[in-house]
Design a protein that fits this description.
The chain contains 1 helix and 2 strands; from the N terminus they run αββ. It is an alpha+beta fold and 49 residues long.
């Protein structure tokens, strides 16, 4: 059971790292249920100058 959780966390971290390279202004949210990351949301904001 611990190995599945560790694998889940590692997969989530890899996805977050990839998303961080693409977000200029916005947020990344992790949704966790029963100690597992079940969803990752990325919201991008566009700044009008």
């Amino acid at each position: 059971m611990v190995d599945k959780r560790a694998e889940n966390v590692n997969l989530a971290l890899e996805n977050v790292r990839q998303m961080l390279n693409t977000v200029n202004h916005g947020s990344i949210t992790l949704i966790v249920q029963n100690a597992y990351v079940v969803q990752i949301e990325k919201k991008e904001k566009i700044r009008l100058r």
